[in-house]
Amino acid sequence: MLISHKHKFITIDIPKTGTRTLRETLQPLGIIDVIGQPEWKNFYQHGSINDCELGFKARGWDFENYFKFSVVRNPWKRYVSFFKWMKNNETRRVFSMEDIIKTRPSQDFYLLKNKNLVVDIVGQLENIETSFTSFCNKVGIKTIPELKHSNKSSYKKPHTEYYTQELIDMVAEKEKWVIDKFNYDYK
Of 2, 10, 14, 1, whose CA–CA distance to 178 is shortest? Predict the structure, then answer.
């Protein structure tokens, strides 16, 4: 989560949707006042819109007056990205794709309040440049910086090779909102 009081925006940073790219692109501009960290109660790096609103209310800030931006991703590719990240960064436990699908929040968890979308622009990782440009224009960032893709996923095999039919169906059920809203499909 990034918050700029000068430009009155909030980014809701869903894990594995290009959040490091946003952070590393916007932070050097000197316009970010809050970078999601555990010590900022309610403003976690990957906090939800609900967490953010609670944090704003607790500080007396006007949540409604801030522009809200987020990015989503093809959910089947997102879970493979989680799997690969955890495989490379977690040494104490062996994770399966099923574990990851079951334990990671769906993308709508971060964006919806009472089943309603609260974010002004939801971009897609698959065309993040266009979404980011729209976001910058809306919040008054005059010189649009080039996105710094520092943590881009790379696959030795297609994401489809990580799935059984049961896992495909699990993702389809869990991520129904983002699949329907953005026309994602498994392939």
Answer: 14
* Cα 174 to Cα 177: distance, rounded to the nearest angstrom: 8
Question: How is the chain split into domains, by residue range?
Answer: 2-182
CB within 8 A of 94, min separation 6: which ones?
Answer: none
pLDDT along the chain (187 residues), means of 10: 96 94 93 82 88 93 97 96 79 78 96 95 95 96 88 75 95 98 95
Question: 125 in helix, strand or coil?
Answer: helix
Q: Which residues of 164-178 are buried (b: 16+ CB within 10 A; e: fewer)?
A: eeebeebbeebbebb
